[in-house]
What we know:
Largest sheet: none
Low-confidence stretches: 482-501
Distance between the termini: 59 Å
Structural class: mainly alpha
Mean pLDDT: 84
Number of strands: 0
Strand content: under 5%
Radius of gyration: 22 Å
Number of helices: 18
Amino acid sequence: MPQPLPPVRPMPYPRRWCALAVLLVAEAMNLLDSTIMTVAAPVIHADLGGPASGIQWFSAAYTLPFAVLLITGGRLGDIAGRKRVFRAGVAAFVLASALCALAASPTMLITARAVQGAAAALVIPQTIALIRGMFHGDELARAMGSIGPVMGLAAVCGPVLAGVLTHADLFGSSWRAVFLVNVPLGLGVLAAAPLLREDRSERRPRLDLTGTVLAVLATGALVHPLIGSGPERGSPGRWALFAAGLCLMALFGAHQRRRTARGRSALVETRLFSDRGFPAALAAAVLFFAVVNGLMLVVVLQLQLGPHTDVRSAGGLTLLPWSAAMAVASWTAGARLVPRHGSRVMFAGLAALLLGTLGALVVYATGRPAAYPWPLLAALTAAGLGQGLFSVPFFTTALGRVRPHETGSAAGLLNAAQQLGGTLGVALLGTVFLDTATGAGAPGAGAALLGARDACGAAVALLAGTVVAAVLLHAAARTRPASPQWGRRMRNAKSPSGYGR
């Protein structure tokens, strides 16, 4: 009787490790650009002028299209080829970065930032898919696990690099140098892109263009009224736009359900919402990253508008404890804590972030307006520990519950929720800060201190909502735990975007 043939294993791609380095540089370039802007935004506003809300739009103009177009970017890679779409996205990102550096007005910069965000939405979904296509077995876990340390290093270097480059004023470039950094990095990625292997989905999905347009219009209409301060934000037209955004979001949901019922490719996999844990995961992602991104912006604004700390100290050195603590906590959570304690580690992260936020609130409530708030560094260290301890178990728990064929859609939605949360955090906490800091005209040191205090109070309220969502996710995970094999794979993969931005 003939013996059954052993299963055919795919031949390993010979240039896979060099190709991995190319993809990791592209991932790091995206995170560097996001963290750099947090530090440079006040300096850019001082140079280009315009309303104070421009400080928020410099960040939101990037993260909003990035969040909304992520899933469509992934679908384009499935259809046209992931290597091809990756290269097109990197080329567009480099061009948009050059346009940002040449911007002569806030409007020009905001427009170029939106193009950057759309280009990033083409790049980032392809990196995970290309890694999965080039690696197999244990090597896949090691390749996916390498994303975390690289993202942690980028998170640490971003604020420092922004502060150093802006302060150095190389050749009179001032803040423009923070965008020019992307040009050599992006050109290097393009030059090395032939190392990648083309990869596409065997079953090509169809684009949901109507759903994409509805999502873009709805999120833009919801976020726009939240940015600004004072009378500018209170106009009736803005809240009419917000109401229109709610209607568009309801229309988007109905459109997605209708496409799914007809068996057509929808932008959102509606079956994911049949599990009560996944909506809780999306809510937790939006609220948590709203706190993280919003607080970082408020810290930098208070230091530059209050005691007029130079950009190197206000951004690079002040945020360094946060970034370093986040990187260490993320590694510790992934390597030690999550395998032993599972999703409970999320609550240790939330407790640390709450402690750091309350500590910052106390510092701002009791500090001297014109003095550098040295105790703030301890509070920011606690906040960074909280971010690192929360992110890894959160993504492990949220993605460990979905079925394998739903992983791509679930990861895309969580990543989009993360980016949307960052946008809302910049809008909400930035607006709370500016409402107080500019309420009496030009922002003074005392008003900036009070604005930061109020923003920290709003962050505490958002964290309370995050705790509720995390409890619901944890309870759902206990009723239907992930399989051990799936859980191990997701712990190695960390999160769909490395570490939070």
